[in-house]
Amino acid sequence: MKRNFKYEIRLARDNDFAAIARLHRQTIRHINSKDYPKKMIDVWSKRTRAHRFRRNASKCKRWVAVKNDKVVGFCDHNFSCELWGLYVHKDYLKQGIGSRLLKTAEKSILKSGCKKITIKASITAEDFYKKYGYKFVKKSFHQMGSIKLPIIIMNKKIFGFPPARK
Fold first, then answer.
1. Cβ proximity of 84 and 52 under 8 Å
2. Would residue 67 count as lying in a domain?
3. CATH code for the domain of 46
4. Residue 78 lies in a domain
5. pLDDT of 10-24, one tens digit each?
6. pLDDT tens string 49-96
7. Angle of helix 17-30 relative to helix 38-46, nearest 10 degrees?
8. Which residues span the domain enclosing 13?
9. How many structural domains comprise the chain?
10. Given pLDDT bands bounded at 50, 70 and 90, which one contains residue 162?
11. Cα 12 vs. chain centroid, distance in angstroms?
């Protein structure tokens, strides 16, 4: 498949939160719905609002992939070596956006001194993370209101590049 890399990866801005929330809901409803029942999808997607992303912005680093002034993907991590999530718009899958967002987050996590990244991934995302070296740790659940969303905990050891020779 021909990849179109005419998009930029940049840190998220305050005016991106509404677009991030829409993308998050849309991805849950269209992509994650293949692996989760409707009731779980409804609860999961309805809790996504711009104010939630705005409220936790100081607790993480978040990047967006932007194409033609449209947010087509985002990725974020906290400051404790945990990748929070990665979402790509359904119309932009398989174009390298997810892998570029992941590499950007991994470099940031490595710079912060972490040697291992952990993610609580959706069942849907397990194969994506395996492709990039993440290992299955265990199955778990994420409590969302009255439901327990099945998730997969994964991790990956990361290493810096050797210093340049002088």
1. no
2. yes
3. 3.40.630.30
4. yes
5. 999 999 999 999 999
6. 787 888 888 899 999 999 999 999 999 999 999 999 999 999 999 999
7. 180
8. 8-113
9. 1
10. very low
11. 13
